[in-house]
Records
---
Amino acid sequence: MSAKQLIALLEKHVKLHKGLLELANKKTEVLKKGDMEALSEMMKEEQKYIAAMKQIEKERILAVEKIISALGHTQAELTLTACMELVEEPERRALERLRDNLVAVIAELRNINELNQQLLQQSLQFVHMMLGMIMPQPPEVNYKKPNMSPVSYGSSPSLFDSKA
């Protein structure tokens, strides 16, 4: 397998991550609006991207393995960096550029996902607060006189005479 095939796989990987980044940006707007149906659809779409990325990642690992073994090297780690050290200059530059693009997109995606997580947590806190206000509080299950405060309860005369 040549480095050109690895470059093509990395281009697909970057493209998938950019698509996921666009989806994450849209998800931020949906979270701000509170549209749960759209959020559900977006989560299904995300799962498709994730499945495609897993497949591309498997293919990338195989491509790196084939390139390293074809060049007569044995590496403990089948990483892109290990492969870049072995290929010739024009392909090395392309691999470095794609790696840098992928790292940048992943960093941006991580930031947007953190923002979305904060928005979800705030929404959940709001829902819990509203439920606390709407739902009636359960009655206390204590055996005491109705108009008696807890402090005066302990100082009241007992119904039972312990001296008897």
---
Amino acid sequence: MNNGSSISEFILIGLSNPPELRMLLLCVFLTMYLITIAGNLFIIIITNLDPILNTPMYFFLGNLSLLDIICTTSTVPKMLVNLVSQQKVISFNGCIVQMFFFTVGMDTEFLLLTFMSLDRYLAICNPLRYKSIMSKKSCIIMSVIVWAFGFSSSTFHSLSTLWLSFCGAKEINHFFCEVPQVLALSCTDISLNKLVLIITDLILGLICICLIFISYVFIIFAILNIRSAEGKKKAFSTCASHITVVLLFYGTLIFAYFKPSSGEASNMDKEIAVFYTIVIPMMNPILYSLRNKEVSLSVKKIIFKKTISKY
């Protein structure tokens, strides 16, 4: 492969929208971005402040919130700038950095949601051994595995892109630098890049979703075997938020990445990308806080303590 690129910058075409709607979209997306950052920071802080929330489920939830911040911050700020800018350019190095952090966030989240389903499986199907298996050490090891995989995958995609040459078109029909769209602009052989991309998609897409599906098959059978209606309701409530997040996350990404594509992003592809880069990261803390009694009690307890200490 050739060593490096002959292009110093790319042009991000961005979202297809009339000029009169740009300010409205700017206000909407900026509000959603601020809600996303505030909500996920809230989850990270609350799970570290209250000892009651120092459990494996909330440990993984804190990791999920950090990933959502990384994913949305790697794409949304540049998109907001381009909405009000005439020159929608991004430097070659800036594009690689954006692609790197976005890929870290997405690839790591795939594995993290899988380990979160394993956590729910052990809690419901094997409660007597749950604490011994899901110890603090085990949780840290799982966390290291998912982050290491995400960084390794993203590093390969980013470094291999640095060695490609881009000698023709430099317009990316998207609002951020994503691996398939960047590879489509290269004028060198990208067969190895495509092969690794397919293998990564198969591992993260098919294998992870199969493991999640199998976990929830056992969870459903375990819940059905619980005699009391209250016990069934309590067991299901501990999984409801995770199931919702998995359906939203995997549903949109499977539709986006596993459909036939020529590398050129369509308007529908960009609309789907808005969903998994902005909407889902904003909804995750809402789903895990509003529907969770432990989080609500922790917030009330912290507010109560602050009030008492003040007076």
---
Amino acid sequence: MKNRWIVIWSLLGGFFSLILSACSSAPVQQSADDMSSNVQVESEMAQVPTPSMTASQTSASLGNSKVKDEQRLGTKWGDEISSSVKPVNLKRLSSTPIAESQIRYAEKDFSGRSINSISLAAGKVSFSVQDERGRNLVLYRDGQQYFLSANEGQSYVLHYTNNSAQTFEVVASVDGLDVLNGQRASRYNSGYVLWPYSHLDIEGFRKSNSAVASFTFSKPKDSYAAHSASGSINNTGVIGTVIYELNAPRDKVKPTSQYAPPPNAFPAD
């Protein structure tokens, strides 16, 4: 697979995360509509009760999948936030993603098991949606689907934590749009890179190499997707994440800690 340019996103607090820029090799064309079509399939499947589902479980699943027009939300182009970038070079280990998740959001009370974060890549990556103060917004898990009760006017951040020594790439979309270039989302687009034992906060749609526009919940008609030539109001209300593993030396990045590492009795081993 061809090398991809990667852009480092310098975050507040001394943490460094990476993003693969849109100037990399062309994405696979077959996935241009993958995000939106997959959401529709999941919604339809959720309405078909399985033999193992109880009456109450079936009712809850049907209730989550049905969102009234007045409950629908999108994400608008919010306030500008400083975020500078610069290029480096890394490659994906495989063209196939190792994990994927989607969150449906709306201004309604969803049901299901409440959780703080979603476990991805066999628990190596944790994904949560946070408010501007860094507090996790409650997610609801219903089978294999995830839902978020949102409020119009609230800004939010996509927060990823790498709990492993591996390096990952995070391809993210909001309302069917790629958060890096504002084009129709594809699983094969370039994305943000997450270093070992570090975290990544995606705060908004990228405007330039030095700034992003914050994610802010809004009515669908006011969303970025509704006013973008690449977007569609029909795709508002969904957040997508795809994870790839990157080819990067594992011994170059150490966990950040306020304590000194323990002494090594056998340093030559």
